[in-house]
Give the backbone structure.
Amino acid sequence: MKPATSTKKTVKQSDPEGGFKVRSDVPFMVGLAILGGFYVVMILLMVLADLHFTDASSLKETLGRREIQHSIKLSLISCTVSTMLSLWVSVPIGYLMSRFQFRFKAMVDTILDIPIVLPPLVVGLSLLILFNYAPFRWMSPWVVFEVPAVILAQFMVACAFAVRTMRVTFDQIPQRYEQVAMTLGCNRSQAFWKVIFPQARRGLLAAGTLAWARSLGEFGPILIFAGSTSMRTEVLPTSVYLEMQSGNLKGMLAVSIVMIILSAVVLLIARLFGMQRINA
Amino acid sequence: MIKLENIRVSQGSFQLEDLNLEIPESAYAALMGRSGCGKTTVMEIICGLRPILSGQIYLGNLKVTLMKPAERGVGYVPQDRALFPTMRVRHQLAFSLQLRKQPVEIISDRVKELASWLEIEHLLDRMPEGLSGGEAQRVALGRAMACRPRVLCLDEPLSALDEALHEEMCALLQRIHKETKITILHVTHSKTEARRLANQLWLFKDGSVQKETG
């Protein structure tokens, strides 16, 4: 019988003198920089193009109009209310989905994703149809084509994103904390509020920011479910649409810039608050 | 005393049948076995964190089978210590007493007593982040013992500690047991550790727990 080594090629000992060379990291790093950089530069260029195209006088003129001021006010209020509602709902759903096993969980999970994958116009249309049926029909005169419709349309979409964020947040907090808290004397509710919820604050902030930004940009469902009545249900995306309809490109841009500034401010506040929490 | 009687547990493919274990009052018992054999599960059963299909659990003279984890009087120190990241050491030690609505002075005295006993007075105002392995272990022990539990469950408390710290923690555990006479169940991989600390050795063998004699 031949020795096993005689039929196999042996692995050469690595040669520190330069027999084995590793390819350069440069192409990989350049590839990363180009692909990543392209996207970042595109975002900046888009914003810069908007700023360049508009001027201070048209911005001042647009912002001075009563209907635009109303639109800004309604956007700020409705986004804040829909964000609070989203957090109110997304925390328990995120926690339930993260911690508990129950029948039809996979189905519930899929249902929760529907507002994310559904075209926004369909969300608005579905809400409109839903309010034709009791018991929703009874509330219809106070909701449909009124301010509550704006909030509800924003909430239906924004909440789905907040739920996803909160679920990931709770998934990342080990169950061991609750278990220890329960052996120390907590019931489930105390373990949640005293131990888990304080750890989820950063996720809550992220979910809130996401829900707020999502609500600010919501257009399709609002247009269908709340209409675009000036001084009543007009929010900033509706203003952009109405300005476009009347062929006022400068006005459309001015409103867009207000939206960019609002988004940037919210993002900045969220980041600063987040950083403070990390440093605390 | 810790007594498990004919315990049956099933979760997915993991099953334990007819589990029996009896650790007398004030004993220091070590539970050994291969990874994944169910050592942590036994601890979770005692703490009430793992539902059982049948059997009875006694702690002291109390049948705790249907009791919630909070009512069982078990001090639990998990392998990863699980110190609450948003609480200062002082609050971790006071946590179980605050839940029992103890007067502030009693809580403060107990925290001081534990801190001095475990030599962590200088850590009281620190957050858990940045504590060394040995410091975190002391805090976790203090937190578990704050409300004077009936039994102490330690899940591999000395793993991932360097040699010097290992020695220090062994001495601390011996001191805790000697001074409090609390019944301790200590899960470990190390026979040396078990023989040094425990006066009873239990081994997981072929799906059941057997007491090692001699």
Notes: The longest helix of chain A spans residues 66-99. The mean pLDDT of chain A is 89.
